[in-house]
Please model this.
Amino acid sequence: MRDIRLKEGVSNMEYVKIFDTTLRDGEQAPGATMNIEEKVRIALQLEKLGVDIIEAGFPAASEGDFDAVKEVAKNITKSEVAGLARATKEDIQRAWEAIKYANKPRIHTFLATSDIHLKYKLKIDREEALKRAVEAVKFAKKFTDNVEFSAEDACRTDLDFLCRVVEAVIDAGAKTVNIPDTVGYITPMEFYNIISTIKKKVKNINKAVISVHCHNDLGLATANSLSALLAGARQVECTINGIGERAGNASLEEIVMALKVRKDVYNLATKINTKLIYRTSKLVSQITGMMVQPNKAIVGANAFAHESGIHQDGVLKERLTYEIMTPESVGIPQSVLVLGKLSGRHAFKKRVEEMGYNLTEEQLNKAFKRFKELCDQKKYLYDEDIDAIISEEILKLPEKYRFVYLNVVSGNKTVPCATVEIDVEGKIVKDVAVGNGPVDAVFNAIKKIIKTKSKLLSFVISAITMGTDAQGEVTVKLEEGGRQVVGKGVDPDVLVASAKAYINALNRLAFKKEVSQNKEMLP
Model:
């Protein structure tokens, strides 16, 4: 393990690899559907952020996932690109076919090791599991030396057997051994003891990096990951905003900032450019449609807000009284006034580039057209408005349904009525509906046109910036046939934003049906 020297002046800090699985495990979160273009965009941002390994997906799961991993591998130049594979030759071969285009490819193969998984899921004994694990690693080594093995449900695995598996796969050629808390069951002290035991008992452990992958079912994912690092793990698998299956994964931003703020405790460093954390968080939120809760650590809207008078007074006198880190350290911007209706295309392009976007001419023209339209509706635009424009106009799924027109009649003395026009695969369809309120009327009209059987699970409205002319951002969550999707819509008119969000969710639902993956395959 190589040491690095930090600019902060603390020497001999060991280096922790950040393995981001937002594109794989993160996409398993209900509603977090991403198309190929969106996955590539997130991957490029993760590379800018400084992520060491990007797990691009599970190539054997579907053709869509295979193509997405392949495109990510082709576009990433600095970070390693990993493809997940079960411990079978077919999966491993498929993973390699997708990631072989990467400058630094990694095959990540896994097999369950706990008795409960062996008995009820795989229906094999320990010796057979050990044999399969070794065979999988040896087969993967035929394609690349960069092989990672994960012992699924490691934290509920007999510790002596887990040590045997780890030693055997390292002998077989694994360069990284991952100890996942697959079901979010472990506690920090227990995890510390597991990693410590592996380091003591596994004779060849110095030939591999110990990795950890923690789920957040008990809200302990970050704490468990940090505890494992104290015990000697040197790779952490995590996601942006902590998204992922069930309660999610360990949060990249929490782990990275904990190591940075408390370097006196951990004496560990990462390559992450923390000033890009907030922008990366926003991008993932925009693309997946999954809002970050206001009280979310590091990137939540309230993370640096001080409501208490005592706290406000203290911060005004000395920020360190109540702030252990600054908003600037994670890249949280102020809502700086940037552009208005007299601003030209060159100024718009310059600002977009300053914000970290690299748009094609076609994408820029489309975004600039929307910018000019919005300038007619509100006097000034902010960075958040430009983020919303690019999210809505550029970063979206293929549209089976496209919003065209809305007219709503409502008031306290009239029955709310909505007229909606939608482009359904090239054909304009119009219908009218009433409802208990204007939003209900809008949604009822859309339902009549699209004939959806989906159920509305949540509906949230928020303002993007300050002022009464601020754009409204609407988020809806739909469920149909066991599939959940999240849709977003942005517009100065909240009813139009509501219609856009609902249609966006229906597009995501249609997309998810078309490229549905066998989630039972995933760890």
